[in-house]
């Protein structure tokens, strides 16, 4: 897992996989792949 901070949000991602975008309290919001929203969490 790669942990990055984007726009104040903590984002966990796996290389070459969709990443789960979470809010500030860690609630999964949606999955993103190559910058596109691909699925709701």
Elements, N to C (H/E) = EEEEE
Task: Enumerate the strands of the largest sheet in spatial order, edge to edge or round the barrel.
Answer: 1-2-3-4-5
Helix content: under 10%
> Over the alpha carbons, how many angstroms does the gyration radius reach?
9 Å
Kindly, what is the distance between the CA atoms of the first and last residues, rounded to a whole number of angstroms? 17 Å
Give the CA-based shape: globular
Number of helices: 0
Low-confidence stretches: none
Task: Summarize the SSE layout with pairings.
Layout: E1 2-6, E2 9-13, E3 19-22, E4 28-33, E5 36-40
Antiparallel strand pairs: 1-2, 2-3, 3-4, 4-5
Task: Summarize it.
By secondary structure, the protein is mostly beta strands.
Q: Can you walk me through this structure?
A:
This protein is mainly beta and 41 residues long. It has one domain. 0% of the residues lie in helices and 61% in strands. Strands 1-2-3-4-5 form a five-stranded antiparallel β-sheet, with no helix packed on it. Strand 3 (19-22) and strand 4 (28-33) form a beta hairpin. The mean pLDDT is 77.
């Amino acid at each position: 897992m790669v942990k990055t901070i984007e726009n104040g949000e903590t984002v966990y991602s796996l290389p070459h996989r969709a990443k789960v975008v979470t809010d500030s309290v860690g609630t999964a919001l949606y999955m993103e792949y190559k910058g596109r929203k691909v699925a709701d969490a």
